[in-house]
Amino acid sequence: MTHHLPRLLAPLAALALAVTACTAGSSTAPAPAGSSATTAGGSSDRITLGLVAEPASLDFTKSDGAAIPQALLVNVYEGLVKLDQDGKIVPALATSWKVSDENKTYTFELTDKAKFTNGTAFTAADAVFSINRVKTDWTTSLKAAMDVVAEAKAISPTQLQVTLSAPSNDWLYRMTTHLGAMFSATGVDDLANKPIGTGPYTFTSWNRGDSITLTRNEAYWGTKPHYQSVVLKYFKDPTALNNALITNAINVVTTVQAPEALGQFTGNSKYQVIEGTTNGEVLLSFNNANEIFKDKRVRQAIRHAIDHKALMETCWAGKGTLIGSFVPPTDPWYEDLTGVTPFNKATATSLLTQAGKLGATLRLRVPTLPYAVSCGQVVKAQLEAVGLKVTLDQLEFPATWLEQVFRGGDFDMSIIAHVEPRDLKAVFGNPAYYTKYGTPEIQGLLKAADEGSVDEQTAKLKQVGRLLAEDAAGDVLFLLPNLMVADAGITGLPQNAIAVAFDLSKLGKR
User: 339: how many CB neighbours lie within 10 A of its CB?
Assistant: First the structure.
């Protein structure tokens, strides 16, 4: 089969799904109220976005976490393909592709116009280098998704052939994430400090603890973005983030961290408020390698002890979606599983008593992210109400949380939003991952889902979602909403945050 979408139509398709349907191209309109533009009108404007989670490094081949690809993917680095706002796979550096009848061989036609910012042309040889490098040089937990590739070879400078060892429904989707980022063979010596890609922006500077600045790539092969300079400014305090918009220090709050404060922006003509959905499952994760969590009754007791509706109302102002599983509604295999382990304090206490764990102490170690800190306090209170003791620690994010919880396994429970798309296999199909879960049954179903037909994939993954809920492998507290506030004149903001990348090239202004 052949997949093709003309290069010029891809951004238009995405923009049609944005909150405003205006083009993200150049404009000569005056800067809107509250703008931090350095030049009124024209195409040399600057925009400042307020974010929460600052990267620990700029090298996503060595460091886990979503903050790096959020800033750099599709902006500095491009892949062969990417996700549009509808969650569909669309062309990027690949203009089209064909898949063999047995779903094992992909043939990509590549653009001949793209260049890396170090001056070298992008060719199929770079794609081969990038794909192989995931298997040989990457050290992150998500690299295993590339293991299915048996061979990648350049047929010509503009044609790439990738052969898989087995059919995979998942592989092309993974190529829309940072795993599919294309690198220059001569530009990977210092990725932590000098990212080199083909994207519409180039990395300019990083003021650690404060901001990252990107500059428009004037030699970009595609449609050039409107803003000449984009500043990604990071805030640890949600009130400070909101105040920065009010005082014109930033133009966009990319993720509202104090939903109860939305009222000050709603109905104010100076601002636009965007509400949509995300892939961000807020997971109360269990360290399933710890002895206490090897008893299914303890895990189920914790899920029964959580009043999810009250928790979401208390710690996130009721914004979000209760789903009861690790599958968001935007995935085809979503099923509402909120009824599998309903809130029931008596059942929770009974299960703990049966397990001999009434009065046991659990360490809940959360990152210093507003939703995690706020929800952690609610989880602690609700678990103590059924007979557990909970110590609550706040760990600096990302460095300390990644080191002690994610890599070190020094925790009983944690709370983190897993925002990577379709990460069911990574989080609960790999016993080496920080959740320490991945039963043979689950792994077998995941394999069958990946190698089967589309219908089989949907059926098997629904089965996986239900098994995880019934076995209480963890507890999804709720699905984060996409809540954004911005100056009224900003265009091209995404209604739904389905991909991990924040596509800055779509931004413009009226």
Answer: 8
**What is the helix (H) or strand (E) element at residue 47, kind and residue range?**
strand 46-51
Burial bucket for residue 18 (CB in 10 Å: 0-12, 13-18, 19+): buried
The two beta strands, 81-83 and 89-91, are antiparallel
CB of 93 closer than 8 Å to CB of 103: no
**What is the pLDDT averaged over residues 58-78?**
95
Six-digit token string for 357: 């764990």
CATH numbers and ranges of domains, the chain: 2-196+488-509 (3.90.76.10), 278-481 (3.10.105.10)
d(CA 296, CA 373): 26
Q: What is the dihedral of CA 429, 420, 326, 492, to 10 degrees?
A: -160
Burial class (CB in 10 A: 0-12, 13-18, 19+), 4: exposed
- Cα gap 198→195, rounded to integer Å: 10
Number of H helices, E strands in the chain: 13, 19
Whether residue 244 contacts residue 233, with contact meaning beta carbons closer than 8 Å, is answered with: yes
Please compute, for residue 253, the number of CA atoms within 13 A of its CA located in the half-sphere on the CB side. Answer: 31
35 has pLDDT over 70 = no
Band (pLDDT 50/70/90 cuts) for residue 141 is: confident
Give the Cβ contact number of residue 39 at 10 Å: 12
3-state secondary structure of 498: coil
What mean pLDDT, rounded, does the chain reach? 90
Lowest mean pLDDT, pick from 81-90, 129-138, 263-272:
81-90
According to DSSP, the residues that pair with 48 across neighbouring strands are 231
